[in-house]
Amino acid sequence: MNAATPHGGSRKKRSTLLLVGMLFLGPLLVASLVYYGSAGWRPTGNVASGMLFDPVKELPASELRGVDGSRLGYEALDGLWILVYLSQGSCEIECRKSLYDTRQVRVLLGQKDQRVRRLLVAGAPLPDPAYLSEYHPDLLVTTAASAGSDFVQAFARDRQGLGDEEILRLDRVYIVDPLGNLVMAYESGFDANGLLKDLQRLLRLSSIG
């Protein structure tokens, strides 16, 4: 009887280690399966307002900088959903409408707004800093020049072969997931309610970010 005791203890230890491992890895595995393994998490063509990146496209690494040249730390975006708006020029009527709409979409998320940040990738001439500070204090702003051509080109989607400035002039809004993947694109003049519904669906079905 005594000889069986060490083996029983070993089995108990192994079971304990396995349980601990499942507690740590289980949520990650489930999140991965929900996010990548299930067709249900992603909006399909007949329910989505935006255009899907199929498959999703990973954004290249880039040292983003603010309009003042200061480094825009990735920690400000790490693990969050991002509404990225690419705009060429000084941000006039259409640009300001898109910024207003994305701001309102984030506000209407309610308590889930902390899972989402907004990023403006601006071409030249740069938007008026006073306007951005007054009306969009939560907006992170970087320049297309500092982001680099590879970063801008990643947003081309169905418009391959365009130059950087042409991509900026598309005036599109994009959803980027917490892993840095481009998920959806929205044309200039997009339906803000449609964007809101798509984003709410993604936040509801995704366990990350």
Beta-strand proportion: 15-25%
Whole-number tally of structural domains: 2
Nearest-integer average pLDDT: 81
What CATH calls the topology of the largest domain is Glutaredoxin
Distance between the termini: 52 Å
CATH superfamily of the largest domain: Glutaredoxin
Helix tally equals 7
User: Which structural class matches the secondary elements?
Assistant: alpha/beta
Based on CA atoms alone, the radius of gyration comes out at: 22 Å
Largest sheet: 6 strands, mixed
Features:
Glutaredoxin; 17% strand; six-stranded mixed β-sheet; disordered N terminus; 7 helices; 2 domains; 209 residues; single chain; alpha/beta; globular; 41% helix
Please give a quick description of this structure:
This protein has seven helices and six strands. The chain is α/β, with parallel strands linked by helices and 209 residues long.
Structure notes:
- The protein is an alpha/beta fold.
- The chain has two domains: 2-37; 51-205, Glutaredoxin.
- The chain contains seven helices and six strands; from the N terminus they run αββαβαβαααββα.
- It has helices spanning 5-37, 93-108, 129-135, 144-147, 149-153, 164-169, 192-205, and strands at residues 51-58, 81-87, 116-122, 140-143, 173-176, 181-186.
- It has a six-stranded mixed beta sheet.
- The radius of gyration is 22 Å and the shape is globular.
- Mean pLDDT is 81; it is low at 1-6 and 13-46.
